[in-house]
Amino acid sequence: MKFFRALFAAITAVGVIASVSGCSFVGGISRGETLRILSGSENEALSEILGECEKKTGVKIEMTYKGSVDIMQELKSGAPDYDAVWTASSLWISLGDEKHIVKHDESICTTPVIFGIRQSLAEQLGFTSGQVSVKDILSAIENEKLKFCMTSATQSNSGASAYIGFLYALLGKTSALTNDDLASPQLREQIKSLLSGVERSSGSSGWLEEMFLAGDYDAMVNYECLIIDANRKLVNSGREPLYAVYPYDGLSIADSPLGYLDHGDRKKEEAFKKVQEYLLSENVQTEIEATGRRISLNGVSAQNKAVFSKAWGIDTERILSPITMPAADVLSNALNLWQSSFRKPSLSVYCLDYSGSMKGEGNEQLVNAMKQVLVQKYAQENLLQAGEGDINIVVTFNNEVLNVYTAENSDEYSLNRLYDSVCEEQAGGGTDIYTAAKHAVNLINENYNPSDYTAAVILMTDGASAVENRETFENFYIERGCDIPIFSIMFGSAKSDQLDDIAQLTNARVFDGRKDLVGAFRSVKGYN
Amino acid sequence: MKPKIIGAAILAVTAAVAGMILIFTDKSQITALGGYLGGEKIGLFEDEEIAEYIKKTYHLTFDYSRAGSLDMVTADLSGRNYLFPSSQTALEYYNEVHGSAKADEIVFNTPIVLYSHKIVADALEKQGIVSQTDGVYYADMEKLTALILDEKQWSDIGLSQLYGSVCVDTTDPARSNSGNMFAALLANSLNGGKTVDESTISAVLPKLKEIFSRTGYMETSSSDLFNQFLRMGVGAKPIIAGYESQILEYAAENPTAYDKIKDDVVVIYPSPTVWSTHIFIALDDNGKSGIEALVDKEVQRLAWEKHGFRTGDYSSANGKILVSGIPENVTAVMNMPSYNVMKKIIDELS
């Protein structure tokens, strides 16, 4: 009866999709409608075009940016708060649209996932002429000549695509990846070696570009369009641009589909169609192309030739043969392996605020937050689970450092013990985030080799700190010259000013743990 | 159309008790039919010209919900008047689940074709896998299948610009009709070009499974796959399987866009191919009236010219179309395997 199981699966999967009637709409009905679009962060670069779109169509557009994997999760739960989805690749819609609410999805533009490597370094590595393979890149990494930044494969399409591409290339596969392939000990060794070259990680491609520009790194794996965008900014500020490298054996292309989420509102559907039609109209397509996105198979239009600069290695004439994405179960296995074994281990120092001002609600929120990340049952639900070799350290503080608890082992027992310590600690006294942050950075530098880990300090506080040690901390951080980001998650009656300054100093970000705790953690862990 | 209305009026007088039929005779009364439709026919059902004509002439409108050809059979049929899948297999499945349909009729046909790009077609021609007759490309399916099964690389057939193994991208054969029919074609090719039956299928299944196990992730909608083919270029989708109607509809609806791709996109007819038969299954008397409207000559003409569906009266022999390389008649056609054999294929590939 396997046949009927299959049919049943197909039925529940393809299902009976939302009712559409054949009637057409009267123009103008959508005026004043608001279209809430759940979008990949790479589309932030199109905000001007979207602004113009609002004026021309009369449809108000509200963009919410998330990573591809989060978008997939949101679709799985029916995405009730959104009217449209605009993800980097149609793969995530297909995997997430279990409720079959996505309609009218069409690719708005395409862009390949590539390596952008500092021009002089790319030349030195011999990557500026001829064909480059993932294996060539791997040997540069193994010879310690190259480090790179990429997004987290369990959060973002560019990271997932690049990672899957690495797997294909290392296996020399030209047909679909299988679960047996993933079990190969040799692959495991090679992919860990390749990923040891990851210098910094990020939860999404747009943020990766921002982080890259704010720091001083050699290379990043990102969309061609964001490499182009980064290059414009690098050149404008007198810095060295990136050279585009297209590894032929592990490429993928993002097809940027924009689809309607059918919750049964005709007016929204009509508004959606207007917006989509506008974005696909010839003039607007050319404007989209001007941002470095590809719109046609027939090469670049005359007026945008300069955008795709050959001097940066951008090559629109080369035929791109992307890898075949594996079947859904293999992909999910591969992503879990990334999280649990293959990625570079993370070294996380959580600085937890136990000052008097956190008493009550703030402390409750903080303890609950730590439960989400330390208790593996909860962590797993959100792909935040600890992986092999991860180190978790808790530093509790008020106006001074109270205690340091370390779990060098990422097993469940050690992490539960760490959580127990968090629960038992009592709040009281003043607040000094600077002393705690300095202590955390010292812990990493003195006890570990930071380049063996993606290291981060995560400051969880209400941010109302005494400032007498601020300067000491800032000077210390700059003198140390270390690249350890200090993220903050805000609790209680938090104010972000002090935390924003720390984030800026350390090339990190501040998240609000009161609004969307899991989201905040996913974001932080995307970097770490 | 006049005789039909007179006929209906006579019927109405003689069967005045049947209130349902009265509705059809009342010209001010429009009957709205509801049912499930395969996604590849949405363009046709959304066509205002066709809708207007049917409304005027038959006092009918078609509302639809999109569903896969096999899925629609087991969907909630309450309040529905029709099913409009794209294969005979779906009708047989319906008959098995629900008993004989009230009425059924093959309304449109379209062959399964391969879509490819000029450089790929040229390379395949050099290998003797593809040949041209009267400007139409035909593929020797047995040779093509062997190439795929042997895991030949594109570079092996002179396409060093492409990276990877020779393959044909399809939709998921366990979920979508076009992929399902292409799997049947491959099975027939593996069976020496003869339609697989109960006695030959088991010998073919392991190789068929081998081919599909290498394809990885598959789309579930033929329109999504076709759009990706158009958008992502020869490196991403060197060859896909789809319906002939897709390129004809695309060219009719987007003549400017078609103009830009027409020198590159090549339609290749598997030789032999299989017909996708679009069977209208009436679930009740109202549904039956839908058949009459859809087989109307004018509807059939528009279905061909604007949406690329071949019908009894229209094909490229008489109706005008924009796409070149489309044969007047598709004669090299083989039968689809029986319903029981298709069940085995789906089972193996699920």
3D structure, described in words:
Chain A has 528 residues and is α/β, with parallel strands linked by helices. Chain A has three domains: 2-107 and 257-292, D-Maltodextrin-Binding Protein, domain 2, CATH 3.40.190.10; 111-254 and 311-335, D-Maltodextrin-Binding Protein, domain 2 (3-Layer(aba) Sandwich); 345-526, von Willebrand factor, type A domain (Rossmann fold, 3-Layer(aba) Sandwich), CATH 3.40.50.410. Chain A contains 21 helices and 18 strands. Chain A has a six-stranded mixed beta sheet, sandwiched between helices. In chain A, strands 3-2-4-12-5 form a five-stranded mixed beta sheet. In chain A, helix 3 (68-76) packs parallel to helix 4. The longest helix of chain A is centred in the first third of the chain and has 15 residues, at 157-171. The two termini of chain A are 46 Å apart. Mean pLDDT of chain A is 89; it is low at 1-30. With 350 residues, chain B is α/β, with parallel strands linked by helices. Chain B has two domains: 2-109 and 277-307, D-Maltodextrin-Binding Protein, domain 2, CATH 3.40.190.10; 111-275 and 327-349, 3-Layer(aba) Sandwich (D-Maltodextrin-Binding Protein, domain 2). Chain B contains 15 helices and nine strands. In chain B, strands 1, 2, 3, 4, 5, 6, 7, 8 and 9 form a nine-stranded mixed beta sheet that branches. The N and C termini of chain B lie far apart (47 Å). The interface between A and B is large, with 53 and 58 residues.
